[in-house]
Design a protein that fits this description.
159 residues, mainly alpha
């Protein structure tokens, strides 16, 4: 599995921003106010993944007091991180498209929806950051070179 590509996240966010802008410009008069529940869910998920990233990093680096890490759990964390970073990029882009449209709209209803759009962008960016941190925390640290000219222990034992 390869690390998440930042360019893929940017492209997904820009595409979602365009969709958000188009949907809002076409259907804003028929829509209810922007909800806060998805923002709260994304922020909670971002906090949970940040805590998980810190814990996983300590366990993989075998810091004192940290229990051993389960390899299957780490694989699941990587999948969670990759999915969360993409979902955060999509939601953040969509919210940014809404925010851009709302900022240009002169109505009071649009001004009332701006805080929810800003919260959506902030929560989505926090989720992307936490997900990328979690993904990075799941990497196996490089082993320091051992004596014997940089050969691994297995190769050195055969000579």
């Amino acid at each position: 599995m390869r690390p998440t590509s930042l360019s893929m996240l940017v492209v997904a966010g820009l595409a979602a921003a365009a969709v958000g802008w188009l949907l809002l410009s076409a259907f804003y008069t028929q829509m209810p106010r922007l909800p806060w529940l998805p923002i709260i869910v994304l922020a909670t998920l971002a906090i949970a993944e940040a805590v998980l990233a810190q814990n996983t990093s300590a366990r993989i680096q075998r810091k004192p007091g940290a229990p051993r890490v389960d390899p299957l759990a780490v694989a699941r964390f990587v999948v969670l991180a990759k999915a969360s970073s993409l979902a955060g990029a999509l939601f953040g882009g969509f919210s940014a498209g809404l925010l851009a449209w709302l900022a240009l709209e002169p109505t009071r209803a649009a001004r009332d929806d701006v805080p929810a759009a800003v919260g959506g962008v902030a929560a989505a960016l926090a989720l992307v950051g936490a997900a990328l941190w979690l993904e990075r925390s799941c990497r196996v640290p490089e082993q320091p070179d051992q004596k014997g000219g940089g050969e691994s222990g297995r190769q050195a034992g055969r000579s």
